[in-house]
Amino acid sequence: MCVTAVESRPPGALGTSSTSSSRGQRPFGARVKAFVALTKPRIIELLLITTVPVMFLAEQGVPDLKLVLITCLGGYLSAGGANALNMWYDRDIDALMDRTSQRPLVTGMVSPAECLVFGISLAVISTLLFGFAVNWLSAWLSLGALLFYVVVYTMILKRRTSQNIVWGGIAGCLPVLIGWSSVTDSMSWAPVILFLVMFFWTPPHYWPLSMKVKEDYARVGVPMLPVIASNKVVARQIVVYSWLMVGVSLLLTPLGYTGWFYTVVALLSGGFWLWEAHGLQNRAKAEVTGGKLKEMRLFHWSITYVSLLFVAVAVDPFLR
């Protein structure tokens, strides 16, 4: 389903009365925190969780620790640059959404020009760091993830289609490939399978949160699926993607990349995920609304699930 964002505006077209007045008072410490906030550190933590364990799988043991540190630093800078550029482009709608109303560009702690230069600088530095300190395959994958998130998701899909997070989520899947390529300077079916796990994970991870804050998205005309579809439809889609995710996650073992430990973790954590997903669907079918819908239970579990699964990816080589 594809719709056009209501009252779509050019980036930065909206302003707030508080931003201009706050620019005169910008303490150094607060400014440093603001620039760190532009990188969205909590989101990047999740990206690194999917990068480092794949390096253990690729090495079938402990990878070179210097390589791990450089890959993590490059990944942080790249994702941070993408997030900063996302905030630069979305500053107009961020000013109108409750969950983003305190972002640095909205409060005026960072100017749009500063944010743009900061984001581009991180993109350049991270690409060169990967290229010269890791390998150029990882560098191009990192740059590709950044450009996909900023251009394809933020600028093209987000305000135009309810499938924005489905295809835009590809950017968040690429760190899996980067983790593998940083060790091997090549590709294999193992990272491709984990890429697909993250691809099918992203919609049922993000849609429950979107259900919770759909009024925010509706206010600014961003057609997230929960904005333009009923809870029943969204929950049904969540269940479909959840089954695909769990099914794909189990392919690593028959293909010989993992053993019993990963399989057990994938089955137990995936089974609990499906229990939660079907529970949400049942509540949506019963037309439960408000807090009783408990959509955030699946959102919070989704973070735990991906953490457990990728820890199992890292630990499994030592138990085979």
Explain this structure to me?
With 320 residues, the protein is mostly helical. The chain is built from 16 helices and no strands. α11 packs antiparallel against α16. It is flat.
Keywords:
320 residues, disordered N terminus, single chain
**Main beta sheet: strand number and arrangement?**
none
Low-confidence stretches: 1-22
Mean pLDDT: 91
Helix content range of the residues, please?
Answer: over 70%
The end-to-end distance, rounded to whole angstroms, is 45 Å
Count the helices. How many?
16
Structural class: mainly alpha
H and E order: HHHHHHHHHHHHHHHH
Outline: flat
The Rg value, from CA coordinates, equals 20 Å
Number of strands: 0
| Strand proportion | under 5%
Blueprint of the fold:
Blueprint: H1 17-22, H2 28-38, H3 41-59, H4 65-89, H5 91-94, H6 104-107, H7 112-133, H8 136-157, H9 164-168, H10 170-184, H11 189-212, H12 214-220, H13 225-228, H14 231-249, H15 260-285, H16 295-315
Helix pairs in contact: 3-4, 3-10, 3-16, 4-7, 4-8, 7-8, 8-10, 10-11, 11-14, 11-16, 14-15, 15-16
